Design the sequence.
């Protein structure tokens, strides 16, 4: 084979390899999803992140987010876990970090594999689940501490609706569920945490959809935040799906509303 033919063959082979590389580069889907966590509160929030069992961990697992700031975190598309906001946090003289609401108990800003101590508003995700869909919700099953909104951006199918709780429930929280700092309500417990009754916890003899019904306390959360989970079997109106989206998790989304009177109105509705 002449040098000219060898040179021509190598040149064509090189062009072929370059073409295939560019085709792969531009047509292959990037195997990740992004979470943009936004703080619209008038105070600092310390987001916490917990990855589900046997799933790839995303980092950081906790950080400070000042008012008006945001942070974008990439996650593999098989990720599953929870994202929440901690409030009223500080570091003591020994260097131990702790928060008055939704603390993860790690003693540090990062949660390091620990979940939120109730009460806490939770954004829950399972990416690339059944039929390739992402499943997500905002849960108040473990109580409430912050208004929160989840927004799917750029989704290709699956509904991709926004969900969350826009209401500020802390000051309107029933007194028997309220967590206070001084005279100010800072969080609202679930009835399960407050009373430990299996009827409220959907446990023991109440561990099926037929036997565990929404209590008056679950209805308090549901009336204020109709798209959020209010008790364990609140799936039909509270779980959302999307395919191929990135997600915004917004603390204190605007406008958020105070619900001092909702408990009274709910109690009245049960009387008539």
Sequence:
């Amino acid at each position: 084979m002449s040098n000219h033919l060898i040179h021509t063959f190598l040149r064509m082979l090189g062009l072929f390899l370059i073409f295939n590389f560019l085709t792969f580069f531009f047509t292959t889907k990037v195997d990740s999803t992004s979470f943009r966590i936004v703080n619209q509160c008038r105070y600092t929030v310390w987001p916490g992140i917990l990855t589900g069992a046997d799933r790839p961990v995303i980092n950081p697992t906790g950080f400070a987010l000042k008012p008006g700031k945001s942070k974008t975190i990439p996650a593999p598309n098989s990720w599953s876990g929870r994202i929440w906001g901690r409030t009223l946090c500080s570091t003591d003289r020994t260097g131990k970090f702790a928060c008055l609401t939704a603390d993860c108990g790690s003693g540090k800003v990062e949660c390091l594999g620990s979940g939120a101590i109730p009460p806490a508003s939770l954004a829950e995700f399972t990416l690339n689940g059944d039929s390739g869909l992402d499943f997500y919700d905002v849960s108040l099953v473990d109580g409430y501490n912050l208004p929160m909104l989840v927004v799917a951006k750029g989704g290709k199918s699956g509904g991709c609706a926004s969900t969350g709780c826009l209401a500020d429930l802390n000051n309107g929280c029933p007194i028997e569920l309220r967590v206070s700092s001084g005279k100010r309500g800072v969080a609202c417990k679930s009835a399960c945490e407050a009373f430990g009754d299996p009827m409220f916890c959907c446990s023991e003899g109440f561990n099926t959809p037929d036997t565990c019904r929404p209590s008056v306390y679950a209805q308090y959360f549901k009336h204020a935040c109709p798209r959020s989970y209010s008790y364990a079997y609140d799936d039909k109106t509270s779980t959302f799906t999307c395919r191929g989206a990135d997600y915004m998790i917004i603390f204190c989304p605007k406008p958020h509303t105070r619900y001092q009177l909702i408990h009274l109105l709910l109690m009245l509705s049960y009387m008539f």
User: Anything to note?
Assistant: The chain has one domain: 28-271. The longest strand covers residues 80-91. The radius of gyration is 23 Å. Residues 3-27 form the longest helix (25 residues).
